[in-house]
Structure formats: C-alpha cells, structure tokens
Amino acid sequence: MSRIRLTRLFTFEAAHALQNYKGGCRNIHGHSYRLEVTITGTPIVSETHPNDGMVMDFKDLKKIVQETLIDPIDHALLLRQDAPQELVEALRHLDHKLVLTPFQPTCENMLIDFKQRLRHLLPSHVELHSLKLWETEKSFAEWYATDNV
C-alpha cells in the first residue's frame, strides 16, 4: 500500500507579547498566522466505506484542527500565564479574548503545543507528519515527526 500525505491550510489572527524579551516583541503585537497541518496514512480500500480512497476526509481534519486549535486562539491575545496580574485583570475587565499559556507564546512553542493536542485526536489509522506555522509572510517554524523519533 502507498502512504499518502494530506495537508490542510488554516489561517487565524492572534496577538502576543513575549515576557522578558529584549526586542520589540516584548510589546503586544499581532500576526496573521498560517498553519499547515500534514498527516500521513494509507487510503481506505473498501467500496462500501464512505471514505473509500481517502486517507482521511479533509472535512474531518478541518473540524478537528478548527475546534481544537484555531477557534480558541483566533482573535485572541496570548500571554504567558505569569503575565503581570494588573494587565490580565485589565484585559479581562475589558472583556478581551485572552489566552494564558504555560509557555512563552512563541511560534516554536505554539507548534509544540499544537502537536501535543492534535496527536491524541487523530484517527488511529493516520499519523501527524508535520506542522508549519507562518508567523509572518517571510517567517515560519516547522515541526516534523521524523525529527522527533
């Protein structure tokens, strides 16, 4: 059987600030992120199966990623959970969409978090192959399963 890779592209808007960082990214700023999720598997071979010929229905992959990763952070401000309490309280008082993370909300750490959450939700017959998160038009981070064996 041939293994096939499927990739689905997602976009979302989010802001973040990097605590204790010495450059401009210590200030709250936003990005138009682009996330590529690639899975691998063998197409289903069963004329009676509704997904005959598919590794996974793109619709199903979209639903998992959208609900698990994108919806919670789209148009949110991501801050490390030990951000200054006055800032957190002010943002909550203003009813801003705030996501506090147990990690510095860098592109790299977001990928690690995405990988950990996605792996457990994919069907058993597919594997997470790679993730690519574009923070800007010219800058991205990648995670590959083969680099982490």
From TrEMBL:
Keywords from UniProt, A to Z, are: Lyase, Metal-binding, Queuosine biosynthesis, Zinc
List, alphabetically, the Pfam families matched: PTPS
| Cofactor(s) for this UniProt protein | Zn(2+)
Q: Which InterPro entries match?
A: 6-PTP_synth/QueD (IPR007115), 6-PTP_synth/QueD_sf (IPR038418)
What GO biological process terms does the UniProt entry carry, in alphabetical order?
Answer: tRNA queuosine(34) biosynthetic process
Active-site positions on this chain: C25, H75, E135
Q: Where does Zn(2+) bind?
A: H16, H29, H31
Which pathway does it operate in?
Purine metabolism; 7-cyano-7-deazaguanine biosynthesis
One example of the protein's molecular function in GO is: 6-carboxytetrahydropterin synthase activity
Superkingdom, taxonomy of origin: Bacteria
Q: What is its EC number?
A: 4.-.-.-
| UniProt cofactor note | Binds 1 zinc ion per subunit.
The record's catalysed reaction(s) read: 7,8-dihydroneopterin 3'-triphosphate + H2O = 6-carboxy-5,6,7,8-tetrahydropterin + triphosphate + acetaldehyde + 2 H(+)
Q: Which PANTHER family match?
A: 6-PYRUVOYL TETRAHYDROBIOPTERIN SYNTHASE, PYRUVOYL TETRAHYDROBIOPTERIN SYNTHASE
* Family according to the record: Belongs to the PTPS family. QueD subfamily.
State the name under which the record lists this protein: 6-carboxy-5,6,7,8-tetrahydropterin synthase
Q: Which organism is it from?
A: Pontibacter virosus
